[in-house]
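By way of example, what follows is a protein record of this kind.
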Amino acid sequence: MKALLILGLVIFTQAVFVKHASEPHAAVFAQLEALEDHPLGKKILDTIALQMKNKSPLSDIAKMLQDLRENLVLQQQDAELVHVAQEADCEAEIYGYNRRIDFASNEITEATIDINKYTADIELLETDIANKEQQLQILANQEEQLRQKRAEDHASFEERQITTPKVVEALDVIAAKLSAIQPEADAEAVLAELERVGGNNPILALVQLASTFSAEKLQNVQDKIAELRASLEQSIIDDQEEEVQAQLNFEAQIVEINEQRAALQSEKADSETKLGQAQVQLAAAKKRKYDAGRELDSATRGKVAKEAECEAWRTQYARDTEQRTVEIGIIRQVEQILATKLEGASSYIKGRIN
């Protein structure tokens, strides 16, 4: 039992001696122990220890380290190429998104201006059309009033054309009767005759009454009747001329109303055409703004997503680059130790094997 204890103490002492070498190898041991803290450093030392245990030549170990280092260098070079391509892709895509955003923003601005313009145009055109309709209704009312007035005036004219000649005819009868009267007839006889005639024949009654006049008064009455007859005949002629002129004036007014109506209808039709065009343009401007809004939203979301992706690429590239740089540094450090401090390194690794 005591012998086993002594043997264990000897083995432990040897291990401590190897692990904590004498002063000449202390620096190498410290470097190698530091490498143990990194996963790659520990893996490399494990691999070297295994190869040394298998009696592999030092050249194989050096070749293994060289291959490992060069592989990392190639990985870094490939990563740099990928990084450059990714940066170019990011720049191109973000530039494209920015152009889409700018274009969509401009489209929204221009469409908004157009919407305001067409909305104002539509309001003006609708007001103009309503005014034209009101003016057309006023013209229709004026025409109706003119036609009604013309019909009434023409009916009055036709009535006068019937009654006035009858009055003239009656005056002719009176004039003929008066011409046969003997002036200064017996008053009592005349009154008796008037009473007999009564209201059934006013002309005859008038003639009977006139027979009591003196010759001078009778002539005066005949002159007045002649003047009245001439005036009535002239009034018939004047009335006919006035009727003709009234009809001409009426027709001229109707023509003027029709011309005004035609002009208003043409202007109204033109405004209605423009209104239809403005409504189509307004709908197009609204759709343009809607489409531009969707495009702006899509481009903005695309840009945000791309920027996030690019940032993730950069972060990954920086992390991988840093890791490979550290790993290449570890390999170079091991290569340098093996190249310049092989004895100390061998002692350390042999201690790991034991």
Notes: The radius of gyration is 66 Å. The domain at 26-354 is CATH 1.10.287 (Helix Hairpins). Residues 62 and 339 are 9 Å apart (CA to CA).
